Amino acid sequence: MYDEFAMIYDRFMSDIPYEEWASYIDDIVKANVVASEDKLKLLELGCGSGNLTSYLAKTYDVTGIDISKKMLEMAKGKCIDAKLYEMDMRDMKLDERFDVIVSFCDCMNYMPDKKGLFDTFAESYRLLEDGGVFVFDMKTECYFRYDLDNSTIVEDEDDVYLVWQNCYDSKKKENQYMIDFFVKDGEKYERYREVQSQYAYTIAEVKELLVKAGFEAEVVAEDGQSDGSEDEVRNFFVCRKKR
């Protein structure tokens, strides 16, 4: 995942509100986690190229994991103080405990089945300190079905031409991304293709799995204030581990 696309990822994801997300995480942590003289320990699942990680590392003692080696190589250049590991969030080879665990930019939507979601939630619960919080976002089926389905995004720059096509299968609840891009190499262009899938889950399905894993969970809309709903583009899940 993100093998070839990693080389141009940051250029075409520049509109993602990483700084706003970091601020939102800070607000949740201040409201829920007991302050410490030392930096709180934070684990980021699916840290990608390190854009959110770089903001979080200013406040927290950060560990980041991602399944893509190429994305982690990019993250290492931005996050000198963070510990970064190539790892699957469904089976985290970590023994350290964390005060905060976060996962943003739709990472949970990459889980192809409920088992993968539950395994991730259970692993997060295991690694979280009592009284800690686990915060993540998920895109909704409404967004996949009505905003993305059959849409095409075209970006044309001097050295890169990109075509991003979307197709949503309502029976499988799967949105397939077909990304073709052409990178200029001297007088010619090299063509690359990456195909990825994200999956839609209802709020009820996700909350059921979170409770099964041991969490107390609430759902917040993308504005960070309103209650979450199936009509949002994305929802935030704020999950607490009891003391």
Summarize the structure.
This protein is of the alpha/beta class.
**What is the count of helical runs?**
7
Strand elements, count: 11
Q: What is the average of the pLDDT values?
A: 95
Distance between the termini: 37 Å
Order of helices and strands: HHEHEHEEHEHEEEEHEE
Instruction: Indicate how many domains the architecture comprises.
Output: 2
CATH superfamily of the largest domain: Vaccinia Virus protein VP39
Q: CATH topology of the largest domain, what is it called?
A: Rossmann fold
**Helix content class:** 25-40%
CATH class wording of the largest domain: Alpha Beta
How much is the radius of gyration in Å?
18 Å
Order of adjacent strands in the largest pleated sheet: 3-2-1-4-5-11-10
Q: What does this entry look like structurally?
A:
The structure is a single chain. With 243 residues, the protein is α/β, with parallel strands linked by helices. The protein has two domains: 5-139 and 201-240, Rossmann fold; 142-199, S-adenosyl-L-methionine-dependent methyltransferases (N-terminal domain of TfIIb, Single Sheet). The chain is 28% helix and 35% strand. It has helices at 9-12, 18-32, 51-56, 69-78, 114-127, 141-148, 203-213, and strands at residues 41-45, 61-66, 83-86, 98-103, 128-139, 152-156, 160-169, 174-185, 188-199, 216-221, 234-240. The strands form two sheets. Strands 3-2-1-4-5-11-10 form a seven-stranded mixed β-sheet, sandwiched between helices. It has a four-stranded antiparallel β-sheet with strand order 6-7-8-9. α5 crosses α7. The model has no long low-confidence stretch (mean pLDDT 95).
